[in-house]
Write a structure and sequence with these properties.
- The chain is of the alpha+beta class.
- It has helices spanning 52-60, 74-93, 97-115, and strands at 16-21, 34-39.
- It has two domains: 2-60, no CATH class; 74-120.
- It has a two-stranded antiparallel sheet.
- Helix 2 packs antiparallel against helix 3.
- The longest helix is centred in the C-terminal third of the chain and has 20 residues, at 74-93.
- It is elongated and about 60 Å long.
Length: 121
Amino acid sequence: MTDELKPCPLCGSTSVYLQPVDPDDDDLSYDTEGWRVMCYACTCRVGYKKSIDNAITAWNNRVEPIGNPDEIPEWMRNKIESEINSLQNWVNDTMYPDNQYAGNLAIEKLQDVLLLKRGDV
């Protein structure tokens, strides 16, 4: 059945699976058995459905993105770049080595985010 499932819409992973939902599970508030689809990589999941077919249909239902899905939206890129600039100013102004290390690490991670493409996660 999993060959009918599309890759994860969030991270692009093909490690997705059908998961039975047990109404007797204390963590769930469902009154009947059902199914959901979940991604192993990022734990994205589609909500509870009463049948396997409905769970697969819900998982595979996608909205086509506007623009290039491999590019970060401009508003988000601008916000990340603004945060990088703020962190660089803070790192330059602080006299504590631990703060400089933490700030530089955060800057490096944010710069990595700017380079991400949809299938990289």
